[in-house]
Design goal:
The longest helix has 15 residues. By secondary structure, the protein is an all-alpha fold.
Length: about 50
């Protein structure tokens, strides 16, 4: 079995959290997914924290 494909989102590191959440939600919708607000906020926070 091969490695499972990973989906990567382009999370803006600048600006407000609300803007970053909006950008990621748009990416997910464009990919055919229905984003969960709380899940997207958690993702944005984790990515931004690890980028510091």
């Amino acid at each position: 079995m091969g490695k499972k494909d990973e989906v990567r989102w382009d999370v803006p590191l600048d600006g407000t959290e609300a803007h970053a959440v909006s950008v990621v939600k748009k990416q997910m919708k464009k990919s055919g997914l229905t984003p969960n607000d709380a899940g997207v906020r958690k993702l944005v926070r984790e990515v931004r924290k690890s980028a510091k």
